[in-house]
Design a protein that fits this description.
single chain; about 160 residues; alpha/beta; six-stranded mixed beta sheet; globular
Length: about 160
């Protein structure tokens, strides 16, 4: 099996498992881990900016996965290159702390700590209520994003 030799690859699944579709990022991380993805460090975080910044440290490539709310249909998948910035109209993590993924990305850029490759996958949520399950549309998107991230990691490995 080919291993990454040129830098740390990290997948960070962000979200709250007790708030319905907000669990999307963490569920993607769990699917990758369950599938045996061994070419990346796979982390699950609640969404605090300081935790995200620490997880990005010394990574050459990062995939950040989170739920979002932009007004698109539930289950819609958005993919952004963080180096180009995140769209202002998209709310990530819906954190009660007010300082989450988008702020962590902007702070990492300002500090020169953003990985060379930093891809954000955002899954459009439908329900963020406490104690609600992940919606059917988001569950389908979780499977699709897990496949996309795995495929992108494997393409990256072939290039190195």
């Amino acid at each position: 099996m080919t291993r990454v030799t040129q830098g740390r690859v990290v997948v960070i699944g962000v979200g709250n498992l007790d708030r319905g579709d907000d669990a999307a990022g963490r569920e993607v991380a769990r699917r990758l881990r369950a599938a045996g993805e061994s070419h990346a460090e796979i982390l699950e975080l609640e969404g605090e900016a300081t935790g995200i910044l620490a997880a990005l440290e010394k990574a050459e490539t990062a995939f950040l996965v989170d739920a979002c709310f932009s007004g698109a249909p539930a289950g819609a998948i958005h993919r952004f290159d963080a180096a180009e910035g995140l769209p202002a109209h998209t709310n990530f993590s819906l954190s009660s702390h007010g300082f989450g993924l988008a702020e962590a990305v902007e702070l990492a850029k300002a500090l020169g700590a953003l990985p060379l490759r930093c891809i954000v996958y955002a899954i459009e949520g439908e329900s963020f209520e406490i104690s609600k399950p992940v919606s059917a549309a988001v569950t389908r998107a979780i499977e699709e994003v897990a496949t996309h991230v795995r495929d992108e990691i494997h393409v990256l490995l072939r290039r190195e």
